[in-house]
């Protein structure tokens, strides 16, 4: 269950803007093929199609794909709960890789479990078909436009 | 200081093979531009040139680049200390992002702090010029050819 | 939702033995005052009464109480899912402290999110009244009677 | 190597006060028997004698002792680098347990690897004789007297 404070601070317009940006992604998120599916207060659901280029020589999905996906979701789940102009800086996270992935789709859900004015703690679960592939938890600092720690 | 057990188990031929593979990388490591610089018993040094495509819209290096780099080094530092045919499965790691990165080069060092027959614990430090950009610690399981947990 | 494999491997007799041991605790768990409330397949619920001796000079619960409680639950949630004679070795965990605690009761729930023959990954949530106080995730190795890594 | 900013901000009087408080400890640190040995800029060295009461039934040191010790050092290494009246709130940490401990002394060293006005990131290594027993890394928020996040 997301932090109830996330419900009060949810801006659906920003969520929509992020959903519509799926087609315009650049950089690492484009290379990975991250697709945002749905925002709700305190929640973000996303998908990633496992293509051959993302596998290692052993035939398993490179763990770095899951790690980079976690980092991406940590920040992005926060934006609709922040004031305009603020930005999200992931300061730390930890992940456990639970099962090898060799194909199909990753279905990820990021949930804000604690939200204050300057800090969010987020849990992530990534599934691959029937199986949990990864869980993560991490901290995001909500930064004001000019202040950097 | 690496685990002394890593010194006894170091195979320089495998280390050389990994160093020479810099030109033949594929997939995520190629996209990121990871370059292995040096192996020593229990140690791996690598570099990554920060190019514009890896920045976010705010102009900072995407945290997912650092996360994926950590995952990659966690496994690769172990191979010269494993028997041929074995493979390295990262099971978990945690990272702290210490300073925003906006250009230059990442210089990473991965160190095996504990090594047993089936498990390695690895610490990573990534610098960007004068500054620490990231520290990480994680666990790698050393898997026999057919056995998967 | 716990790993379905935890359901198949649940031994209610061992769970009962752990519940009945509340009165006979020694060492650190006794000092902390950990009380097991309920086992279910893949789940353990426990409580801890926050007494003044566990507070710091600032009047908040010492974070070490939450950290030690997490470590204790990580191992204990696994025992009813293990063979007799095996033992649980916590190899790593990570926790986020979400809100200061100054009194009342801690209500903790540990859940096995992934279980194989030799490894369990466990998530923990600790509440203090209405508020989440701590979340954690970690890895437990299931060790055979004589084999130590 | 500690963050150079820790050197500029080191107050030896506060360090001395913490060292002299070894005899007056209360609560969990007293129960554990933590002893501070030495402060330097960005560093704190501490010891803990492993007594039988801290062992589990299997004869190994309870992992919760190491976890609680880490939490304690995370905050305490910061105080000589903070302004008077500020307090240190550990927000998260992660530890790896590297070897079972059954007796002797724990020798711990905590190092501030990154320090800003409001945040410290700290690495900890705990040795037991010749062996590394635990490594940890975590984040401490430096809180002003009245402001709580």
Question: What is shown here, in short?
Answer:
The structure is a homotetramer of 149-residue chains. By secondary structure, chain A is an alpha+beta fold.
Task: Give the helix tally of chain A.
Answer: 4
Secondary structure tally: strands of chain A: 6
Helices and strands of chain A, in N-to-C order?
Answer: HHHEEHEEEE
Question: pLDDT under 50 segments of chain A (min length 5)?
Answer: none
Sheet bearing the most strands of chain A, described? 6 strands, antiparallel
Helix content of chain A: 10-25%
The CATH architecture of chain A comes to: Roll
Which percent band covers the strand fraction of chain A? 35-45%
Mean pLDDT of chain A: 95
Number of domains of chain A: 1
Q: Roughly how many Å is the radius of gyration of chain A?
A: 15 Å
CATH class of chain A: Alpha Beta
Question: Structural class of the secondary structure composition of chain A?
Answer: alpha+beta
CATH topology of chain A: Thiol Ester Dehydrase, Chain A
Q: Which of globular, elongated, flat, extended, rod-shaped describes the shape of chain A? A: globular
């Amino acid at each position: 269950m997301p932090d109830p404070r996330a419900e009060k601070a949810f801006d659906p317009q920003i969520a929509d803007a992020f959903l519509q940006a799926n087609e315009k992604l650049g950089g690492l998120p484009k290379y990975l093929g991250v697709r945002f599916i749905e925002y709700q207060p305190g929640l973000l659901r996303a998908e990633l199609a496992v293509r051959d280029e993302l596998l290692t020589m052993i035939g398993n999905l490179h763990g770095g794909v899951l790690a980079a996906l976690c980092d991406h979701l940590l920040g992005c789940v926060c934006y609709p709960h922040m004031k305009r102009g603020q930005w999200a800086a992931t300061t730390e996270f930890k992940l456990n890789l639970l099962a090898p992935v060799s194909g199909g789709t990753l279905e990820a859900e990021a949930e804000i479990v604690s939200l204050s004015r300057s800090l969010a703690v987020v849990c992530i679960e990534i599934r691959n078909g029937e199986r949990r592939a990864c869980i993560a938890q991490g901290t995001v600092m909500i930064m004001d436009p000019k202040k950097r720690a």
